[in-house]
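Components:
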Amino acid sequence: MNQILGVIVALAFQQAGGGVSGRGQLIWEGIKQPDLSKFLVIGALLFVVGVAGVLTRRNIIVIFMSVELILNAANLNFIAFARYLQDAGNPNAVAGQVFTVFIIVVAAAEAAIGLGIVIALYRNRETIFMDKIDLLKW
Amino acid sequence: MTLSGWAAVFFWVFAVAALVAALLTILARNAVHSALFLISTLVSVAALYVLLGAEFIAGVQVLVYVGGVMVLFLFVIMLVNVSAEERGRELLFNKPGQVAASAIFLALLSLGLIYAIRQGYEGLALSARDRVPPASAEQTLPPNATRVARLSQETQRVGGSLYRYAAIPFEIASVLLLVAIVGSVMLARTTKQELAADDLDPELLPELARTEPELQTEIVEVAAARAALEAPAAGRDGGGES
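Structure:
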């Protein structure tokens, strides 16, 4: 299987290197060997998608799911930095993973409380749309 | 820190899967579909954790998030009525002005984040260049160690520092979970359940008798029990004063 991958990578590399632009080759190297910055960019994009869900959706349950997305983006950054520090010299650098455990615990507690509030709200107001829940607004 | 070979291929597969599923999570009309796409995102992120060598966290993510939190989400979606949104009678998003402002803000946010990551990573690479590359974790293991040994050593390290350096936060987290359990039970009770536990505000009893006639017998019982409880107590208080 590694040979197949090698052929594919070689072919693609020839195509990418065919442009003979140093910058294109650099980008292709980055794609072939993703490093810490790629993980950070993926985390940032997940965060942005989560914020988009919080800001634009009306359904409060989907807003909660977007909050979970935001927390996962933070977790991904923590784990990536933990691995970076491990490779940079300290094999015992697991503080990022410990932080992630706590974030997962807090996310579970937040989801339980939040969904309890949603059920209580639905029982009283018969709606789960954020713009209809405006009792405190006027 | 670089991945190479199959790890790089799987990194791109799972990264793209996580991003696409996250986008579909916030775009899906049906809330159940949103929940299922969120499960795909969480599993893909767990796979990225495995690629980063954090197998224990990946397992916790799958067990707690996918096994616990998402089941909770699906239960709540089942309990509340979201059919109006599914059939297209309700708008999916906020007002167009709000959505446009959010889009501008998010574009600026993502550009700023990616710019900051680029700048910061260049600086990080510059500072890491002078450092002497140390022996990696695998190299410190005995030569006959298998991947299973590496896995259990990683978990051992996480558990060790969890209990050694984060013992007090650990206990605080357990108290937080207890509060969350009690709080969600308190929040999600119905009036009838509160009445059955005799935990209702006594001033609400007459109003409840007016609005929900089918609870009449329980209300009368609770009121009688309260009166029987309070009468001797009031007598004792009066006796103490005089």
